[in-house]
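Archive maintenance. Older records in this collection stored only the sequence; we are now back-filling the structure field for every entry so that each record is complete. The fields below show one back-filled record exactly as it appears after the update. Entries are processed alphabetically, and Glycosyl transferase is next in the queue.

ARCHIVE ENTRY
Title: Glycosyl transferase
Organism field: Fictibacillus phosphorivorans
Length field: 453
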Amino acid sequence: MKTEFNYSFPPRREIRKPLKKKIYIPIITKFWTSHIIAFLWMAFSIYVSIPWLDDLSEIVTFPIALFIITGISYVPGYLNAFLVISLFFDKQPPFKNEHPNEKVSVLIAARNEEEVIARTLRYISKQDYSGPIEVFVIDNASTDKTFTIAANAGIMFNLDVRVIKEEVPGKFNALNTALKSVTTNYVITLDADTILHQSAIRLLVARITSSPANICAVAGSVLVRNSRGNLLARIQEWDYFLGIASIKRLQGLYQGTLVAQGAFSIYDTQRIKDMGGWPDAIGEDIVLTWNLLKKGWKVYFEPLAVAFTDVPDTLTHFAKQRSRWARGMIEALKQTKPWEQPEPYIKYLTGINLIMPYLDIVYTFCWLPGLILSFFGYYWIVGLTTLLVLPLTLISYGFLYYYQKNVFKRLELRIRKNILGFFVFVCFYQMLMSPISTWGYIQEAFKLKRVWK
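Back-filled structure field:
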């Protein structure tokens, strides 16, 4: 069965929920309640894994056995449990003004995007945002007709489009070049292959203008456009729809969305200029967000502001993208240490990234070989406790699916039932992700050449 997003957008209408009397639970209570339950789950995992730990210790010694099992079972189980309970507590605050009208700027860094740039601009022209929108398309050393097509599309769709040449390769260079010309209070970054739901800009601006003064950025919700493609694209549909969205909801709950992704996010322009623009990094959006958090600013996530992007449909392209993301995380950790963050929740959220290389490396070099050995009857590494991670994963995805389904209903979009993609995503996706992420860590360790695409 195929999954399909319906892009026939209805007339603008208020997106409101019926007023209900709510019980306020402080964030610190949510934080520690989630931790207590997560630790209890991990304690249960440790208890039932004692025979497995003893058996593996006889083969590789106790310290090595504990190192392996902690990385493939205890810590993932704890993180999944923390995610599940946190999602249960998550509630988005209402908008103060759902129809803002102040002028905003949109920056689109484009390198050889002649096939998609006109489509992206057309969807911007269909926005139900009542305020002025100025668009900067930065042609970043393209060798095709990106510049001409973008300029003509602006005229065709009656958009305020300014096309700028930036011959020095690098997305951060392109964005910083355009930033010099931005005079609006808020600036939105959008990938050249990303299209917007008709209310995306309105709701993104509504969230940041409805937020406290210390909110400097809001990440939009990025989903998969080309999900009718091959199996790889169909798997990624669930990663964006469930996996990435759930992490952003968790981070947003604790007031620290860790990546205001360049694909679709809004920023306070002055805050970005105060930071000196986007940094020279392969994960420029990650490093920028962490630096903003380090200054005491906060970042939110708005699930109703939806954009659809094209994901890689070849393994080579996918590996380049995800290894670049992993490398960007390491860059951010090197530039902004978790213990340097002023907020305790942000210390914790960024600190989790310190153990991600450990989890990916153990999964790649221990769990995957252990899985192969299990087919030959050797259950030294892949044991019963590893299966305890699966129920929590399914529960967390169940929570998020229910939430996302309601989000889509409010936006009058529909989700197709991509059953095969979901099965492969749950059972096999990590087998792709961990080795690719490990390769990204190696690239950063040896300072290999950066690749934008």
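Update note: DSSP finds 14 helices and eight strands in the chain. The radius of gyration is 22 Å.
Entry marked complete.
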